[in-house]
Amino acid sequence: MHSWVDGVAQSQVGLNNRGLAYGDGLFETIAVRGGRPLLLDRHLQRLQWGCERLALVADVRQVRDEVLAYAAALGEGVLKLILTRGDSPRGYAADPQAPARRILQASPLPGYPPSHSAEGVQLFPCRTRLAEQPLLAGLKHLNRLEQVLARNEWQGSAYAEGLMCDLQGRVIEGVYSNLFLIRDAVLYTADLARCGVAGTLRAELLEQAQSLGIQVKVCDLTLQDLANADEVFVCNSIYGIWPVLGVDALRWSAGPVTRKLQTLACALLDL
Amino acid sequence: MHSWVDGVAQSQVGLNNRGLAYGDGLFETIAVRGGRPLLLDRHLQRLQWGCERLALVADVRQVRDEVLAYAAALGEGVLKLILTRGDSPRGYAADPQAPARRILQASPLPGYPPSHSAEGVQLFPCRTRLAEQPLLAGLKHLNRLEQVLARNEWQGSAYAEGLMCDLQGRVIEGVYSNLFLIRDAVLYTADLARCGVAGTLRAELLEQAQSLGIQVKVCDLTLQDLANADEVFVCNSIYGIWPVLGVDALRWSAGPVTRKLQTLACALLDL
């Protein structure tokens, strides 16, 4: 399906786009099934939060309408939404009133091996560490060189994802997923106040786990916490949940809490 | 003058360009006078170093030839060179062999008030702090949200530049300049091993100051070092050197070392 720029079919942007010049913008990657964008409210909540923190001028209701129309036309696939701080002449200074530019792109749903969900995955231990930047932490912004470097540390299919720590060695997330661990039936995930991307499925799991009677804790996590975990999984809003079987010398198997949350994720994402 | 993409006149890039998607690339901003790109070897050295660190595949001799041809046609202005990791489908993984895409753009030389050089400037004390990321430190990469946030902390002409510290409070640089201070006739500038952009004029000054008999020290700098400085200046390869007159409650005046280096910078940049 053709891309849209500001609601018009278009496959290019001008060279003065601040997304290209400075990574000055945000994005969302949304699963579309049966013409519906899944977890849309969560995606738009994060987008709105990002616009406020970066002072991007966007009408999120208009974005919502466009995403709904695009998804209906797409039917099934991945909808990528990029918001950039429009175009500008050279220089970091921006017109504070300039409306954000909206880009919508489609790609096929990725064909991950079914064993990733059914059995689990190995994580590659990335040497690339996440920097601490509280002003950007949690946002899905366009400054993603850390993820590019981390993802390109491994090739081939032995590893489905990578484990990323911050510069202090805290366990944060995957390269394109959030990470959870379970210890004594409590669900833990990293506090993302200093770095990391606050995933939409992560937010949904944190909210719904409590109503499933699972106690939840968001806090700093160490490699020792990972070593002590009973279960570990990664998740995102495209593939749902993959149990983690190992990273480096550590080994786990898919356990009951992971399976319970997997059922929830499959329902949320029509998997 | 028209922009070039991979050597061809063009004003747009495709939406799959990784510069737009992830800020996955590098840039250089080069002053052009009399058809010549100034400090070209320094710019290309930094570009080469960036390509090695980001594993970008680029033929820097080809880039050099294109920059020379573009500058000759431009005559006078600012040449902006962007290298991105080409186009790719959605996802952080990149083809390790994909050649970098070359973008050349022209803009007029900025019309800064002559008093910035002659008398000096006030710095805005930016609240935005630089994150520590040794893998990216020094590079002029396309992930520039910190600079965008910092530059947009002030409006108007009372401040010509901003002072940026890292998250530990160390004094690092300006938003689009490097910063030097002079104390007891020794020239100091921040070590950029954790964050900051290693400017081309900075590199030139560090090298040439020693041959002018000025002792040079690259090290961590604190606000106390700034408070104790006899002279402070900011510099970049477009405007040269501006003496710094003040930031917050601190005050300096343009001194003899600054003036000596200003003469050098003016010669290097045809100012």
Output the keywords.
28% helix; 2 domains; nine-stranded mixed beta sheet; D-amino Acid Aminotransferase, Chain A, domain 2; six-stranded antiparallel beta sheet; alpha+beta; D-amino Acid Aminotransferase, Chain A, domain 1; homodimer; 271 residues
Question: What name goes with the CATH superfamily of the largest domain in chain A?
Answer: D-amino Acid Aminotransferase, subunit A, domain 2
Average pLDDT across residues of chain A?
97
Number of domains of chain A: 2
**Overall radius of gyration of chain A:** 19 Å
Secondary structure tally: strands of chain A: 16
Oligomer: homodimer
Major sheet of chain A: 9 strands, mixed
Structural class of chain A: alpha+beta
Distance between termini of chain A?
22 Å
What is the percentage of strand-forming residues of chain A? 25-35%
Task: Give the SSE string of chain A.
Answer: EEEHEEHHEEHEHEEEEHEHEEEH
At CATH's second level, what is the architecture of the largest domain in chain A? Alpha-Beta Barrel
Overall geometry of chain A comes to globular
Pair with the most extensive interface? A-B, 58 and 59 residues
CATH topology of the largest domain in chain A: D-amino Acid Aminotransferase, Chain A, domain 2
Would you state the CATH class of the largest domain in chain A?
Answer: Alpha Beta
Please give the count of helices of chain A: 8
Estimate percent helicity of chain A. Answer: 25-40%
Give the low-pLDDT segments of chain A.
none
TL;DR of this structure?
With 271 residues, chain A is an alpha+beta fold.
